[in-house]
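The records we work with from here on pair a chain with its fold. The integers have meaning only within a learned vocabulary of local backbone shapes. A complete example follows; check for yourself that the lines match position by position.

:::
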Amino acid sequence: MSYPMSSSAQPVQPAHATGALLLCRAPVDEVRPAAHLLRERMLLAPAGDGWSVLVPEGKPWLAQGSAYEPVDRVLAGWATALAVGASWPVLALWWDPDHAGYTLAAGFRRTVGYEWLTDGTPVGEDEAMRTFAARLALDPVHDMERLEELAGPDGDADARARLLGLVALLHRAGLELPPGLTPGESADRLREVVRVGAGAEAVEWSGWRDALRAELDVMDHSLFGSWVRGPRARLVGAVQLGLGVPLLVWGLRRSSAGWAVAGGLLATQGTLSLTYDRMRARG
């Protein structure tokens, strides 16, 4: 069967492009501080009711000398890094000439993902789709039926069509990608499209002082203030540090940029949680 597209998606011709999008189920103001901590150049834009989209400006998945990391691994690290210290999930969409898929990260829970070969052949597990629906609070009947179709055989739907079908399904949950921002396009094309869109802004690393100030400001105005103070905050901070430092070392040793970023952000947010709790206790 053919899959309907959201109003922001446009038909595209088959191509051997590589690209990625990070869809955050949170408004821009909440996503911005976490995106800064990724230490990557990104373009951030609103993407519907309660959604934001991050478009990488660079291409860290390209080979540089002897170093190479697949786009799906880079995006898995970024999604994990963004979601682990937040109250909202992050959905990474990625594609390359060989396959396409998604990775969903939510807090400290295990990430789930699904992928399709270029011709649309599903190579994921059905359980991933059920977990996907549950973590995004999708309709357990109608939306789950659509997800099962996306995970089923279909000789007329390639990997790009499957991603477009996934975006169309999320349209029911409030997702509205900026016009022309279409999964399956090249990274250069995505960057050009979002740059001229309404509400788009560049996110760049501006140093630890500004990052700390932004993160503490978000904590001060968070609806989850009880989580960032007291014994619970210290426990969460200690866990983030305990997970982040080994993950950072592991990523650096294996030249894995995505997981090194995830480990660094975990360790950073653990430090920020402990620092915030101590500062507010004194104040």
Confidence is low (pLDDT under 50) at residues 2-14, 221-228. DSSP finds nine helices and seven strands in the chain.
